[in-house]
Amino acid sequence: MSNEAATAQAAEAAPAPEPLPHGLGASLPAADTRAKTEGTFPYAADLWAEGLLWAAVLRSPHPHARIVSIDTSHAREMPGVRAVVTHEDVPGSPLHGRGKADRPFFASEVVRHHGEPIAAVAADHPDTARMAAAAVIVEYEVLDPVTDPEQAFEAEPLHPDGNLIRHIPLRHGDPEAAGEIVVEGLYRIGRQDPAPIGAEAGLAVPRPDGGVELYLASTDPHADRDTAAAAFGLEPERVKVVVTGVPGATADREDQGFQLPLGLLALRTGCPVKLAATREESFLGHAHRHPTLLRYRHHADGEGRLVKVEAQILLDAGAYADTSADALAAAVAFACGPYVVPNAFIEGWAVRTNNPPSGHVRGEGAMQVCAAYEAQMDKIAKKLGIDPAEVRLRNAMATGDVLPTGQTVTCPAPVAELLQAVRDFPLPPLPKDTPEEEWLLPGGPEGAGEPGAVRRGVGYGVGMVHMLGAEGADEVSTATVKVHDGVATVLCAAVETGQGFTTLARQIVQETLGIDEVHVAPVDTDQPPAGAGCRGRHTWVSGGAVERAAKMVRTQLLQPLAHKFGMSTELLQITDGKITSYDGVLSTTVTEALDGKELWATAQCRPHPTEPLNEAGQGDAFVGMAFCAIRAVVDVDIELGSVRVVELAVAQDVGRILNPTQLAARIEAGVTQGLGIALTENLRTPRGLIRHPDLTGYALPTALDAPDIRIVRLVEERDVVAPFGAKAVSAVPVVTSPAAIASAVRAATGRPVNRLPIRPQAAVVTERS
Questions:
Q1: Which of 80, 541, 729, 749 has the fewest CB atoms within 10 Å around its CB?
Q2: What share of the chain is helix, strand, coil (3-state, %, to 5)?
Q3: Does residue 632 form part of some domain?
Q4: Is the separation of the CB atoms in 224 and 216 below 8 Å?
Q5: Chain segment 572-624, per-residue pLDDT in tens
Q6: Residue 657 near residue 637 (C-beta atoms within 8 A)
Q7: Domain range holding 215?
Q8: Statement to judge: residues 420 and 546 lie in one domain
């Protein structure tokens, strides 16, 4: 037999290759996986341009000070320095801000937080730029910082707009209602840093028309463009933001105060300017999770059913407003959790201090109150001698129930089903069931503790978040789908931040048009806006826009065939790249139907409108909600106070699973981020100064810290108002897991555990405690 014949025979005998994942519901791999693993993915820190200059920013060493003078002469005279800019060099609007424009690009008269930008330098070498920035002489009159948010109410105004950013008094039901039992608690949540994988970096390139192009890892390029244009005194059309590879984002990825000096220096010098922040600068510049003080009083009847919830919630916004008003709305609205509460009276405040600015971080507002209301549910269970899971089940919210804001929950709300799933999941084996040498003690494999001091605890957390913007935010996204030569291209300004939008867009087009090869174009501001990449927006709004555009192209594709055979396009279907009619008369491939034609369509998606909360905290403020239940199992060394999370069992309301592998990864990542909030992550700021602004002093959980994460139930009950019926999945496990871990530590130690992260002394059991 010849070699050719043998090869042909072997090919005939070989099994057919497995088909590649295709369409919605398949675990389609991300298109950029290979580039990221090979190190060829285009991050901003890797960009280069001919004639490149380097930038550095001078930041305030004080949290609160009056600026007496700024002398830039020494910096300007240094060899290699091309430009030095301060507040006097900002040609346009001097203020910026995500939610409210109240933050100066460069401090001019007063410094309001540690690390506030004072000046920026462009030079021909990064070391020269940093030395020149250090050579700018600033004379300060140091002022006493206001770092306690409770003192902000009585302190002198720290800002022209005052210290109070927002106050929400929520009133729902009968203020005289009372229960048979009452439990109270005071809770504190620390400051979490989003700690992006890569620190901020960017490149600004001046344009021949006097404008500038900014190459950034932006999560909201059109908002960043408009802010930059206002600062530079330019029309928005003369500023272009090109989104580079985003190295992960669990918050507003880019600090606008970082971007704007970059563009200003490029315009001033006429040269490309690059800025790559150090990790310390990243900690100083971007927004953090709001530290929160919470006071709660729960009333319940003799069976543990809630009668009334009273709460006071105080968010520390730091020096500027940012998105604190939005975070407060979420905190107040979800202050009672996913439970039926007939009477609720909540007071919420967000105030300015001289602490580092707070802003959008995944699950903002909802995470802080979840830790508090779940601690209250544990107290009710303990006081009545009821199982903690049972007391939660007796109060579980369901579809049709009413939030304390007066809004009816119209989306699927399978809270009881989720809680039952994690409660009934088998517990992990106890250490005594394995050889002692295999024990993994709290504190790690070489932990100093003794097995006899270890106590196991089981606790529960049930959380909820809202999706999309709230209180009247106009959520809209635009997408274009083009088909040419059998290849589809999606143009949408939705930024891929790790949430999987580009993969989802490919799946939508594959499902709708039957085309395997789908590309998602890079994002820039020449495309129509798609909005910020947070709260599941791009799954819902941008995914909905892609679906509508793809369906319009589908109609263009099928219309000639339907007309030829005398039927409507609804009687044709596309499956696995083939077009068939309901009666089997028509059967052809998508490639044959295209016949070299170029088809395209543009569409928008805009969810139903919401409304602001009124003066009593009432209103239909949210488009949709998502829910999660987690059971935590922990081992605690009650002598050392060290905690090891053994297992986290997760049940989540996901609407519809669009990509199983991607969804599981997002849930596991969210749970692990919550683990950091619960045990290790606390950006300490004594007297307003960030202590240890690095990843040595700020302890992120690693793969070695992550427990076994068991996804025991995913409830697929589609939300009829959402495209594909899917819900956001990343934020709600972040919200829920810290509360579950704290609940488990309470069960193990009997201690109240009223502060996150949990400090070792809070888990130590003494005779008196």
A1: 80
A2: 30, 25, 45
A3: yes
A4: yes
A5: 888 878 888 877 778 888 888 888 789 999 999 999 899 999 999 999 999 99
A6: no
A7: 45-144+199-246+252-284
A8: no
Tokens linked to 516 = 């395997």
Is the CB of residue 538 less than 8 Å from the CB of residue 530? yes
Torsions phi, psi of 214, nearest 5? -115, 120
Say if residue 704 is in the same domain as residue 754: yes
Q: Are residues 235 and 378 in the same domain?
A: no
Number of domains in the chain: 3
Q: Give the C-alpha separation, 762 to 247, whole Å.
A: 35
Measure CA of the first residue to CA of the last residue in the chain; give whole Å.
86
Same domain, 461 and 484: no
Same domain, residue pair 633 and 553: no
Coil/strand/helix, residue 292: strand
Residues 331 and 383 in one domain: yes
Does 150 fall in a domain?
no
Query: Is the same domain home to 322 and 429?
Result: yes
Whole-angstrom distance, CA of residue 26 vs CA of residue 192: 35
- The amino acid present at 645, given as its one-letter code, is V
Residues 422, 273: Cα–Cα separation, whole Å: 53
- On whether residue 183 sits in a domain, the answer given is no
Residue 715 has a CB neighbour count (10 Å cut-off) of 18
Average pLDDT, the chain: 90
Task: Count the neighbouring beta carbons within 10 Å of the beta carbon of residue 379.
Answer: 22
- Residue pair 310/386 in contact by the 8 Å Cβ criterion: no
What CATH number is given to the structural domain containing 109? 3.90.1170.50
| CA dist., res. 451 & res. 438, Å (int) | 12
pLDDT tens for 308-362 read 999 999 999 999 999 999 999 999 999 999 999 999 999 999 999 999 999 989 8
In a domain, 768, yes or no: no
Give dist(CA 174, CA 171) in Å, integer: 9
Name residue, tokens 């014949």: 5
Rg (CA), the chain: 28
* 1 confidence band (pLDDT: 50, 70, 90): very low
Question: Encoding tokens for residue 241?
Answer: 């933001």
Q: Which of 538, 571, 605 is the last residue of a domain?
A: 605
Question: Of 605, 632, 650, at which residue does a domain stop?
Answer: 605
Q: Look at strands 81-85 and 239-243 and give their pairing.
A: unpaired
Q: CATH number, domain at 527?
A: 3.30.365.10
Q: Token pair for residue 46?
A: 């890797």
Helix, strand or coil, per DSSP, at residue 357 = coil
With contact defined as beta carbons under 8 Å apart, do 640 and 665 qualify? no
| 261 CB-side CA count, 13 A | 33
Report the alpha-carbon distance of residue 194 to residue 205 in Å, rounded.
28
Q: Summarize pLDDT for 272-303 with one digit per residue, the tens.
A: 999 999 989 989 988 999 999 999 999 999 99
> Any bridge partners for residue 624, and if so which?
467
What pLDDT was estimated at residue 18?
Answer: 54
Encode pLDDT of 540-559 as tens digits.
899 999 999 999 999 998 88
**Tokens standing for 602?**
């543009």
* 316 and 336, same domain (yes or no): yes
